[in-house]
Amino acid sequence: IIDSGFNSGGLGLVVKAAAVAAKAGAAMTEVIDEAKTAAGEVRMFGLFETMKYLARSGRVNKTIAAASGILHVMPLLTFHDGDIVRAGLVRSVAKGTDRIFDFVKNNAPLKELVIVHSQVIDQAVALKHRLGEFIEEEKIGIAELGAALGVHGGPGVLLAAIRRAGTV
């Protein structure tokens, strides 16, 4: 068992790296090493349109979630070592999407990129096209948010799961 520290798109990138190694005929220890290496290269960053579901799941204080609703701010979150950490606040989906774009661009070059969404496929496709400015679009995947993270985020989640190139 390997704890990648991720779920959703981040976990998918780790599993894919291990599967590619296994398919290439790598020994079990090499597959495990590849998964661990990939886990060290993966980062996730995203926009949650509301804190309501984060509060319901106990990930965010209910008072903070209520205040964010009153102030009309949306959290930007990053995922590291199994923890969800606030990376900022924005007042619009457009500004949140800009921040996701900047996150991806600032972490280039990339081995892989998956855009993960929860009921906002149009935003995911638009972000994919925009990222096509510096990444070949056919190398950018789009996936629907899984249940493990979806229960905390609810609808309106848009995030990027990346695997950086050249990290140790």
Index terms:
six-stranded mixed sheet, globular, 7 helices, 26% strand, alpha+beta, single chain, Hypothetical Protein Tm841, Chain: A,domain 3, 168 residues
Structural class: alpha+beta
Major sheet size, sense and barrel closure: 6 strands, mixed
Unreliable runs: none
Number of folding domains? 1
Give the count of helical stretches.
7
| Through-space gap between termini | 21 Å
Mean pLDDT rating: 86
- Order the strands across the largest sheet as they lie in space: 3-2-1-6-4-5
Number of strands: 6
SSE ordering: HHEHHEEHEHEHE
Radius of gyration: 16 Å
Strand content: 25-35%
CATH architecture classification: 2-Layer Sandwich
Describe the structure.
With 168 residues, the protein is of the alpha+beta class. The chain has one domain (41-164): Hypothetical Protein Tm841, Chain: A,domain 3, CATH 3.30.1180. Helices cover 46% and strands 26% of the residues. The chain contains 7 helices and 6 strands; from the N terminus they run H-H-E-H-H-E-E-H-E-H-E-H-E. The chain has a 6-stranded mixed β-sheet, with helices on both faces. Helix 1 (8-23) packs antiparallel against helix 2 (28-41) and helix 5 (93-106) packs across helix 6.
